[in-house]
Fold:
Amino acid sequence: MRQFFFLFFAVLTFLSCEKHAEPAYAADEKMITMNAPAPNESNGNESPIISQKIIKEAFLKFETNDLENTYNQIKTAIAANKASIQNDSQEKDYGTVTRRLTVRIPSQNFDPFLESISKGVSYFDEKNISSQNVTEEYIDLTSRLNTKRKLEERYIEILKKATKISEILEIEKQISAIREEIEAKQGQLKYLESRVSESTVTIEFYKTIAQKEGVKISYGSKIWNSIQSGFFSLSDFLLSLISVWPFIILICVLAYFIRKRFKRKKI
Structure:
């Protein structure tokens, strides 16, 4: 009887242990989550010093008497400040000829560049200069990226210790998901750094065309278009007559005989 109770107690103990057992990587994963630093927390006692991250942009619009000279002045400023033209477009309407340049320039040369291209401009139709502080966003992205990298390293260590195929497959799945997140955050951080390191300046300058000149050109074009239209209409008419010449001849013959018959009746 005593042996029976001992055996019953041993079975209960075994079942209880099986029920509460969990994979080694699951326990380690919980430890990683608990020990992982918060996005805005530093692992060390000293906080890293990060310089201010400022995105600068500007839009300038003004009138000029000479488009070519103004463009050459801007090109000189671009070369002097190590900038580059990202986009160059030109358009013409009834009253003006407009040219638009989009320039990417190192942020440290932003102010000198604006000063250079503003020389000789009496007034600006529009002048917008903006600065956006993205330091907090930069710190947050950097911290989250570091956390994900440490999590990936820990998962790799767990993978080395795993023995069951199911555990290995699950850990590899987690590592793949973490690496996707790391790549996404690296892309966001790279884009942010690019916008901080290089500022964007859009310059729109235009020249006014004399109204009398525009009217002359406009009326001259209308007269020429009318002459061409009349010529084509006449050509179409002659071609249509040529295409129906058998019917014209037939009508003329019938008219001749009908007229001749009426003359005989009168006699």
About this structure: The longest strand covers residues 96-106. The beta strands are 54-63, 84-92, 96-106, 126-133, 198-208.
